[in-house]
Write a structure and sequence with these properties.
OB fold (Dihydrolipoamide Acetyltransferase, E2P), 28 strands, 21 helices, alpha/beta, six-stranded antiparallel beta sheet, binds ligand ME8, Rossmann fold, about 600 residues, about 20% strand
């Protein structure tokens, strides 16, 4: 039997999962389920990256013992899998004994071989990436992935001879389909060819968390060196049955930010340990939420577990898989989810199943025996094409091909009007339509597992495999309709702020009456009669009168913090007298509870510039 070993990245447990984590697991799950219905022997692995320093830092911030914090969060990632019906065969945690043993063994192996040596490291370390960065990696002195300044570190460290394997890595990466999609392959190749491949620091000194190196008790193994090994340790390398059966991995599913680790560092570790290379690195893009970047480190994320209390897990799976083309970045929004749920799931699929079951129940309450198959109906069903799209990881296109058939079935019902038929003709049409929704339940089972089961239950059929996705197999249908597959999502369920936004809108004409200007705070004085107020003198640029503004900033800003700050002022506000002092404008600021933060333009804009 053909085997298929698929993995996801293992997630840091420094916080709760975000929608990007759910997305990656859903992609891998769909592929695992697809290969299962093809009759392959699938092993699907996911898990958590427990030993990272950033987990330990987060535990400290949360004032919890590290072990407890990591255990608690790992449980939430396991719950994420349950909530989204992720069919992983195992959930690995890198704090498992066998994994620790494995990490130490391959570290030893590479050390004995001379691939690991002691040295000293100096460089910028980004805790978000858990990696040293070079100056070239930084944008405005910050890590572009985490938008934070990395810290400078100097420490004694063990190094892994990454440079030794450069040629082998280039040849592996150049081989066809090792990295998919192509642009992600080209990025890695370009970097390999243009940069010097420096040896990798693979130990950290005196850390309280992590796996101790087998050669020096003062050092723990660098988290990436340990984490990547999960793909092999979970199979009980070297003697385990699973290792013999499933390795090499058929697909490592990962996000674009960690491609280098999987396509360069992981192969080098494997070359050094004499372990066969994985067959494929499948790189997906990043999700944004309502257009903005998400990540735990940036503190901007959607909690997928919470989301699944509001919407069916299948609908979330569907929108993520259908909306985004694998490899590209994509956006998640509740609006897109609602629209696809209502139109494609409730209308196209839900109505089809409901109409067919109603017709079958009404006309054949005692059962419907196998009848002639309507060839015209199935002429638009192209399973070979769907399979080849899935083999090419074009999940969204495969789904749209399945939908072509759903739409064809709906069109067929409208055109043929089976409710006007009788006798053999009616039998033929209803039998064919029941077969079509049975086939759909097979084709959809990887994408919408709960929905597929609901359809099967009403059809009174067992789950099928891809070979059974052809018409004319069922001998007798005794169906029982049970409720509807998808309740429509009402606008009400959308976030209240979205609805409020619709209520009180102003038009652009009204807005443009405001004369907003960039101003420089020239002087700051105390208000003689009010403890919380400052009197500010604002410079509005050459040829403009200065403005005097009374402002309640005293509790939030010291005088010296305000002097020379560029701010935005409303210049054409009616003048007011506040506690005896004239105020000629107002400053724009963000306000949250007691916190006030002045809106500030970039430093290079001219004073007096209009704000539009
Ligand atoms: O990188 N959209 O863990 P992690 C889609 N522990 N995917 C995203 C994403 C987004 N906005 N943000 C992150 C790690 N990901 C390491 C992996 S593997 C041996 C060690 C993806 O919790 C990310 O690219 O930061 C990665 O594939 C996965 O989520 C886990 O990210």
């Amino acid at each position: 039997m053909k085997k298929f070993y698929i993995t996801t990245a293992i997630d840091y447990v420094n916080g709760r999962p975000h929608i990007g984590h759910a997305y990656e697991k859903i992609i891998a799950d769909v592929l695992a389920r697809w290969h299962r219905i093809k009759g392959e022997d699938v092993f699907f692995l996911t898990g958590t990256d427990d030993n990272a320093q950033k987990n330990a830092e987060a535990a400290k911030e949360a004032r919890k013992p590290i072990k407890q914090f990591v255990n608690d969060n790992a449980k939430i990632f396991q719950e994420l899998c349950k909530v989204f019906n992720i069919s992983n065969d195992y959930f690995i945690r890198t704090t498992e004994k066998r994994h620790i043993k494995f990490s130490q063994e391959i570290f030893s192996k590479s050390f004995k071989k001379g691939d690991i040596y002691k040295g000293k490291y100096e460089g910028y370390y980004c805790l978000g990436c858990e990696a040293f960065l070079t100056e070239k990696d930084l944008v405005d002195e910050k890590c572009p992935e985490h938008n934070k300044k990395p810290e400078w570190r100097e420490e004694e460290s063990y190094f892994f001879k990454l440079s030794k394997y450069k040629d082998k890595i280039i040849s592996l990466v150049s081989s066809k389909d090792f990295i998919i999609p192509k642009d992600k392959k080209n990025e890695i190749l370009a970097r390999l060819k243009s940069e010097e491949l420096k040896d990798l620091s693979v130990s950290r000194k005196n850390t309280e968390w992590g796996i101790i190196t087998p050669i020096d008790k003062e050092h723990s193994i660098y988290v990436w060196y340990d984490a990547l090994g999960n793909y092999v340790s979970a199979l009980d390398y070297p003697k385990g049955k699973k290792f013999k059966k499933y390795w090499p991995a058929d697909v490592h599913v990962i996000g674009k930010g960690i491609n280098w680790f999987h396509s360069v560092i992981w192969p080098a570790i494997l070359f050094s340990a004499n372990i066969t290379q994985p067959k494929r690195i499948l790189v997906h893009g990043y999700l944004t939420v309502n257009g903005s970047k998400i990540s735990k480190s940036l503190g901007n994320s959607i909690d997928p577990i919470e989301l699944a209390t509001k919407y069916p897990a299948d609908s979330i799976r569907y929108v993520l898989l259908r909306e985004v083309s694998l490899g590209d970045d994509g956006d998640f929004s509740e609006e897109a989810l609602t629209s696809r749920h209502n139109n494609e799931l409730a209308n196209d699929l839900g109505n089809l199943v409901s109409r067919v079951l109603t017709l079958a129940e009404k006309n054949f309450s005692k059962g419907l025996k196998k009848s002639q198959v309507d060839k015209k109906l199935f002429s638009k069903l192209n399973i070979k094409k769907i399979d080849s799209l899935m083999e090419n990881f074009e999940i969204n296109n495969a789904l749209s091909e399945v939908w072509k058939f759903i739409n064809e079935c709906n069109k067929h019902i409208n055109q043929e009007k089976p409710w006007e038929m009788k006798g053999k003709e009616l039998e033929k049409h209803i039998y064919s339509l029941l077969e079509s929704i049975r086939i759909l339940s097979i084709l959809l089972s990887p994408f919408l597992p709960e929905t597929s089961n609901k359809i099967l239950k009403q059809l009174n059929q067992k789950p099928g495999n891809l070979k059974e996705a052809k018409p004319g197999l069922v001998k007798i249908y005794k169906v029982k309709k049970e409720g509807i597959l998808f309740n429509k999502i009402e606008e009400k369920m959308l976030k209240p702020d979205k609805i409020e936004n619709n209520l009180d809108k102003i038009d652009i004409k009204e807005f443009s009456k405001l004369d907003l200007r960039v101003a420089r705070i020239k002087e700051v004085g105390d208000h003689p009669d009010a403890k919380k107020l400052y009197i500010l003198i604002l410079d509005l640029g050459k040829g403009e009168h200065e403005l005097q503004v009374v402002s309640g900033l005293k509790e939030n800003y010291k005088k010296e913090e305000l002097i020379n700050k560029r701010v935005i002022v409303i210049r054409n506000l009616k003048h007011a007298v506040i506690r005896g002092i004239e105020s000629q404008g107002m400053l724009l600021a963000a306000v949250f509870k007691d916190k006030v933060s002045l809106a500030q333009p970039d430093k290079d804009i001219e004073i007096g510039a209009k704000v539009m």
